[in-house]
Amino acid sequence: MESSILIILFIIPGVWSGNWGVTFTDQCALKGTSVLIKCEYDYPTGLIVTGVAWYQRLRISGGFRLVHLSNIPSAPDHFRYVGDKWSDCSLRINDVQSFDAREYYFQFQTTFNKIWMSRRPALLTVTELTAFVEPSTVTEGDRVNLICVSGCPSHVDVVWFKDGQPVSNPIFQARREDAGRYYCAVQGQEKSRSASVALNVQYAPRKVSLSVSPSSEVLKGSAVTFTCSSDANPIVTHNGYSLHKDGHLISSGAIHSISDIQPSHSGLFWCQVWNNISRGGVDLINSTAVHLDVQYPPVNISVSMDPPHVTEGSSVNLTCSSSANPAAQTYTWFRRTASPSSGSSSMFQVGSGQVMSLPYMHVNHTGLYLCQARNTVGETNSTEVLLTISAKNHGSQSVLFLAGVGVFLFVALVLMVFFFWRKKTNYTEKNSPTSHEDDVTYSTVTIKPRIPDDPQHMNNNRAMRDSASRTGEYEDTVIYATVAKSR
Ligand SMILES: *[C@@H]1O[C@H](CO)[C@@H](O)[C@H](O)[C@H]1NC(C)=O
Ligand SMILES: *[C@@H]1O[C@H](CO)[C@@H](O)[C@H](O)[C@H]1NC(C)=O
Ligand SMILES: *[C@@H]1O[C@H](CO)[C@@H](O)[C@H](O)[C@H]1NC(C)=O
Ligand SMILES: *[C@@H]1O[C@H](CO)[C@@H](O)[C@H](O)[C@H]1NC(C)=O
Ligand SMILES: *[C@@H]1O[C@H](CO)[C@@H](O)[C@H](O)[C@H]1NC(C)=O
């Protein structure tokens, strides 16, 4: 049993040469990782190690000194001896920082008070990962390559993060949302990471919008501001904005104001933006169009009469027309009426609607009328118009006149019959001493078939009648006669 242990003791320390010595290799570590400084030591057979120690070489007040690791201020468990008291003198340094990049010495002590210090130091280099985005500024759709460089010669597996979120593939086609800050980290030791680098993804303007303040429906005379906005990278400059109305350029710049808006400003507005990145080959991007509607109360109100001359008993339509935006919705008609009590006059509502139909006009309806037009933004009165109703017209008067003439003709006919009868009687009583022939004057008058329609004509007829009485002329077409007897 004891001999077998002895055999094992002789076999295991195969590296031992029996000479004093410490062997290790220089190390390169990424900041934040933990590193193992591998170390072996050797000493003559028969000696027993009684103590081990690691030192760091520090520059203190102008000179170099070896300082025991336990005397270096550091986080607990920062330096950890992972070797043993036989042959392994490895040292682990956790969460390596840049100030750990120094020279390290190993020293051990054996029985017989022998002390051995490594002749040369183990050198620790501390580096960091460095991230690159290639290219760092791209246009949407371009290919991007994420590159992570470690300062240490050994291969390191890295992972990528963008704004804290893992990135699946370090080579991709840039989308707008890929813009951000990237860093790489050692796989499994994500505390060890690079500084972050930005990826700038440029894109043509989007979300181009035109807003009208206070509203796209405004009252004439008010102030209006057009504001064009967009999401673009690089941002759109002043000259990248232009405002258009009904196909014409109005102004450049993102903001355009009109202080005294007029109906003529109504129309279709939109803006165009440009930022040197084209979208699908198109450089100028349009906003949606906004229709500006300038509203005003009714103006230019006029009243028209149909028919233009109104006679008693007929009907008339009064039509009110106006220019308004929005179009007038209600029309109210008023008539000025004298109030006998006060001697003044007042307006009374007599109707509504754009057309007011007045049937069976009477002379009393003569008066001043006005129309009031109203839309959502106001009301306006027309001027007062005079509506005159004339009495029964000449047409009905002539009927009366004709009736009178008819009666007169009938009387004349009766008289003519009487006249012929008297003449016949005179022949039979030729020598009668009672004849009064000399005492009687007979006359007849002819009237043209046309019916006279004014007193002037009637006077002319009387003149003709008189001349006929002088000549004693007779005509077949006698239709009119007067008889006068003088004694
Ligand atoms: C657009 O303009 C920006 C800023 O001036 C510049 O950085 C970028 O290279 C330009 N892009 C193109 C495609 O011309
Ligand atoms: C923008 O509007 C103008 C004028 O209407 C038109 O000619 C042009 O094609 C439009 N551009 C886009 C990208 O729609
Ligand atoms: C009102 O009438 C005037 C004169 O005829 C005309 O110049 C003006 O344009 C009209 N206003 C509207 C809003 O139609
Ligand atoms: C007045 O208007 C009514 C209805 O529009 C129509 O029937 C009538 O013929 C019009 N009257 C006159 C005199 O124009
Ligand atoms: C229009 O006329 C009506 C009736 O006379 C009157 O009450 C109203 O005040 C007038 N409106 C205007 C704006 O002159």
Q: What would your notes on this structure say?
A:
- By secondary structure, the protein is mainly beta.
- It has five domains: 2-126, Immunoglobulins (Immunoglobulin-like, Sandwich); 128-195, Immunoglobulin-like, CATH 2.60.40.10; 209-288, Sandwich (Immunoglobulin-like); 297-390, Sandwich (Immunoglobulin-like), CATH 2.60.40; 442-484, no CATH class.
- Helices cover 13% and strands 45% of the residues.
- It is built from three helices and 37 strands.
- The chain has helices at 2-11, 394-428, 455-471; strands at residues 21-24, 27-30, 35-37, 39-42, 49-60, 63-68, 79-81, 91-93, 103-110, 114-117, 122-127, 129-134, 137-139, 143-150, 158-162, 165-167, 171-173, 180-186, 189-193, 197-213, 217-219, 224-233, 241-245, 248-252, 255-258, 267-273, 285-286, 290-306, 310-311, 316-325, 330-338, 345-352, 355-358, 367-375, 378-381, 385-387, 389-390.
- The strands form eight sheets. Strands 13, 15, 16, 18, 19, 20, 22 and 25 form an eight-stranded mixed β-sheet that branches.
- A hairpin with a 2-residue loop joins β5 (49-60) and β6 (63-68).
- The protein is rod-shaped, with a radius of gyration of 63 Å.
- It starts with a helix and ends in a 16-residue tail after the last helix.
- Residues 1-14 and 431-487 have low confidence and may be disordered.
- One 2-acetamido-2-deoxy-beta-D-glucopyranose binds at residues 282, 284-286.
Spell out the blueprint of helices and strands.
Elements: H1 2-11, E1 21-24, E2 27-30, E3 35-37, E4 39-42, E5 49-60, E6 63-68, E7 79-81, E8 91-93, E9 103-110, E10 114-117, E11 122-127, E12 129-134, E13 137-139, E14 143-150, E15 158-162, E16 165-167, E17 171-173, E18 180-186, E19 189-193, E20 197-213, E21 217-219, E22 224-233, E23 241-245, E24 248-252, E25 255-258, E26 267-273, E27 285-286, E28 290-306, E29 310-311, E30 316-325, E31 330-338, E32 345-352, E33 355-358, E34 367-375, E35 378-381, E36 385-387, E37 389-390, H2 394-428, H3 455-471
Parallel strand pairs: 2-11, 13-20, 21-28, 29-37
Antiparallel strand pairs: 1-4, 3-8, 5-6, 5-9, 7-8, 9-10, 9-11, 12-14, 14-17, 15-16, 15-18, 18-19, 18-20, 20-22, 22-25, 23-24, 23-26, 26-27, 26-28, 28-30, 30-33, 31-32, 31-34, 34-35, 34-36
Bound molecules: 2-acetamido-2-deoxy-beta-D-glucopyranose (5 copies).
